[in-house]
Fold this sequence. Notes:
Number of helices: 4
Helix content: 10-25%
Order of helices and strands: EEHEEHEHEHEE
Shape: globular
Distance between the termini: 14 Å
Mean pLDDT: 92
Structural class: alpha+beta
Radius of gyration: 16 Å
Strand content: 15-25%
Amino acid sequence: MKQYSNLVRLLDLDNDFIIDLRYSTPDNFTGSVVYDFQECYIDIHTADRLIQAKNLAKKDGYRMKIWDAYRPVSAQQKFWDLVQNNDFVAYPPDMATIKEFKNSHMNGQCVDVTLTAADGSDIPMPSKFDEFSELARLDCPKTTGEARKNAEYLRDIMVKAGFTPYDGEWWHFYDHNVEPVRYSEQSFF
């Protein structure tokens, strides 16, 4: 098993996930590659909860796709440089002065996920990933029907596995069950 500090390679623990790290490709809101690794790394304790959620989804005929887990601090800075809106992009920390850490992508303690059909094909969800509009919110009145049902199901299984949803993005979940650790600038080769 590959491990760097608190971070483990998710597929070493369970290879039943679909990994589609959007920020390792140009298929994201920046239009460019943001970080240089394509393996999904995540906090080891957060991984356990994510596996629980994936297993709940699998019982009902779904698979889980990971869009983002661990993200280097430099990637967070790139996001902020492009979108200075705290509703969608967290302000990057000053690593020289920060004293208190939170559960974050920058320590692998939150995830951006969606569900797919058992064959890996996309299912209706309220919006595309990284939608910077009201459609990103699960409580958006424009979200109805199957898309709402699927996103509510995702939220419910993630909560059951111990995650806390972020109201502003239906795909974003925090692991508040684990003590926050230092943010990282780890690269994986």
